[in-house]
Amino acid sequence: MTDIKGCQSCNSITGDSTLDLLNQDLAKQVRTAYDRLEDRGMSACLFGSGGTCCRICNMGPCQIIDGVDAMVGVCGATADTVAARNFARIVAAGTAAHTDHAREMVRGFIATAKGETPHEIKDVAKLHKMAAIFGIETEGRDKNEIALELGERALAEFGQQEGTLTMLKRAPEKQQKIWKEMGVEPRGIDREVVEMMHRTHMGVDQEYKNIMKQAARTSLADGWGSSMLSTELTDIMFGTPVPKRAIVDLGVLREDMVNVTVHGHEPLLAESLCLAADDDEIIALAKKVGAKGVNLAGVCCTGNEILMRRGIPVAGSFIQQEMVLATGAVEAMVVDVQCIMQSVAQVVKGKHTDVITTNYRAKIPDAVHIQFEEDAAYESAKKILKHAIANFKKRGDFYIPENKKLDVVVGFSHETINYMLGGRFRQSYRPLNDNIINGRIRGVGALVGCEHYKYSDDVHFKIAVELIKNNVLVLATGCAAQALGRRGLLRPEAATEYAGDGLREVCETVGMPPVLHVGSCVDNSRLLIALTEMVNEGGLGDDISQLPAVGSAPLWMSEKAVAIGQYFVTSGAHVIFQDLPVTGAKKFSQYILEGLKEDYGACWGVEKDPIKHARAMIAAIDEKREALGINKKQERVLMDMQMRRELEGKALPGMGCGQGGH
What we know:
alpha/beta
């Protein structure tokens, strides 16, 4: 059982509430991932870690040693072929996860447009913007009528067999030209995943560069296809996030309320639970069993969704899911899909808590299954909450850490950043570009992806602090964003505490944190649009590969993270991970880490040490600044009104946010 003193992995945990809980006898009775990691007593398979273990057919499995003739596959497959196939299949799996999620969101969007759900079309301005992208007429039409046509057009793109995906035209024109010349424009979302799996079947595609062309195409079907559709339609239906203060802490659980945690990735379930928790019948039932009501709290990316739209607090991230249950204070953990560990149902054995699965795709032994029916969403949500309420009186010993008030500011969508920088009447990325040009902001770094039991969760913190003290504005998504929230970096005050002089000046002028919470892992498509807007604004090149911007998933765990990384690389953004399963294949590894740059203007990078990782990101940004000729800090130019009139609409090299008209 977890013992904070004896557990090497636990000693690397940051977050006062988690450490507090782990020191309690109640939590020490629970067997967690930290125990299982300690008990393994073995290192990871070197062939698997290097990407050269092949089990695609039944003649193996074959363990390949690069350069040794006798150690190719039985079929003759080399290390480069095997590593490329394995890497491409990871991209396909990650894309499939985002795609299945997105398909459900689109179906829910269509049902909402038809009036079949308790939800509504909230962001009409964004609806009209998306309709224009799809060539849908809006004049004189009801919002639900427009939404229905948009949803049906979007759904058709999943099974589309010919042509190209509509959202590709949102990318910079030069980017689109690169994709066309490389032959990697996605034709249909599902088609690219299927073809990727076929081409990596035994005896099909056996040339690593050709395999990676399809991996690139598949990743674009994710980033500029399914993920972008999911994010945009979710915003239209539930409202585009705007900045709000909230809390990320285990201490958000309540002694006097029915605690229900929502874990997974699909906001349709979470939003329905939010509505149902305020239902008079549900509140009355909670009071009948002695509770004041239902307290909802998020876990993992579902937590991010309801955090940024509703300000509902997050109890924990991926690596804390067992800790949330170890408190003994949760009546039900409601889960849907992705990143849910099978162990959660074992953690609650013998306790009053139920783990409730809600999706037919994802059942867990020893869990309770209550199917969430999209065409009866409100009724399904009430049924789930009634089950949780019935557990309240059974609650035994519990321990809720004192709320450490880890307040965060979240909800920085692309539209929010646009408005925040340019003001209501002059929404623009101009101030951001100007401050990059004049050197106050060195560039933009994205910290995305997962957390990892094998590494200290202060890795994100160390990287982010190194970036912001060197005037790099950080955008964060997924569990990485939650990790940074736990360490206090998602507050405007963090700019004063950690940021370099230039970034601090901008943050204090605008009133924003130096690290912006941009959403869940599927919302990395927001970053693609933000990068595109920076290109379109001018002054920083004419495609994404020229921007002083770099991405990182320093503690990636899920296949989805590799798919995300690949769609950023294919879109022209350099990406650094802590490791990649390619080291066992020299030519393929070199191609991933260097050769892709010739094709797309960007490539992968690898660095384990967090400080070196951050400095590699800064070096990549500086390389772009050098190429753009903006590597030297420019003096601030104070402009009078006549100078402003003369230069209106042009880049103002010395003008920062403080002069912008907020």
